[in-house]
Amino acid sequence: MERMIQNRVAVEGSSVVVDVYGDPDGPAIVVIPGVMSDSAAWSEVARHLRGWRTVAVVNRRGRHPSGPLTDAYDVQTEVLDAETVLRQFSDVRTLFGWSYGGLIALHLATAIPVAHLIAYEPIMAPFGAAALPDLKGAYEAGDLDRSVEVALGQVTGMPGPVIESLRSDATLWAGLRGLSSPIYHETRSVNDAPQPDEFARQAARIDLIVGERNRGRAPYGTTFDDVARHTPRAVVHELAGQAHLAHLEGPDRLGALVSRLRHAAV
Asked: Which residue numbers delimit the AB hydrolase-1 domain (predicted)?
């Protein structure tokens, strides 16, 4: 899908921009990215999705050009935002969430009926909790470089030399800085979120995906296992050769798997 339009959707106290590929309002998949990601990072995946006439990628609040987080921000804020976005389309067939976006999607499908839910490496508490004091300090100091360092090093477990190699790429580092401003509040919201006995109780079908390179490994593989235990009706799939950033490292493979799951759900 090459054609894309952007729609701004008013949500409580803010706004979100939705990138819509293909038909403006056909049978749709709605994509919810996670932390340190935006809708632009999902453009290649969107172009590899097949089986929906409409692909809608949410640029969540707190990242340009969407509006701010607002003071009362928590997971429920995101759930209500996602519900508002879903109401913009007449025929949502699939809800897809990545990482924190997967947690948002799981909570939404616990609250309202969803025909088909797919989540790639969703996270849940405790995730990144030990990093919260340093993330808070960086946020209060307005130090975006420190926010990125803490997020990559303490939350994802990235080695120091790898972080420094990323810093050496000025364009890449600037992009990470731009996405890091909401990370303290987002990480706190993950750890403050209610934990239902069963996620996605109102989803007719649930598919969870884990990258092969993360299977059983902290932090993403272990939190995935926690989510899977709280989602007993889910079918678990493994994406060969991939880790958490499959949307950047293998958008064609991720798009193909998600598309296959759509056909399996029909």
From this structure: 29-254
- Domains identified in the chain, total number: 2
Range of the domain at 81: 4-124+193-265
| Phi/psi-derived region of residue 41, left when phi > 0, alpha when psi is between -120 and 50, beta in every other case | alpha
Pair (176, 209) in one structural domain:
no
pLDDT under 50 in the chain at which residues?
A: none
**Residue 136 included in any domain:** yes
Residue 187 lies in a domain: no
- Residue 186 inside a domain? The answer is no
Q: Give residue 248's pLDDT.
A: 96
Is the dihedral angle over the CA atoms 253, 255, 260, 261 positive or is it negative?
Answer: positive
- Indicate the pTM of the whole model: 0.97
Quote the CA–CA distance of 153 and 143 in Å, as a whole number.
15
Cα separations in angstroms, 80 against 26, 39, 75, 90, 102: 22, 18, 9, 17, 14
Is the CB of residue 210 less than 8 Å from the CB of residue 94? no
Q: How far apart are CA 13 and CA 200, in angstroms?
A: 26
For residue 264, the SS3 value is: helix
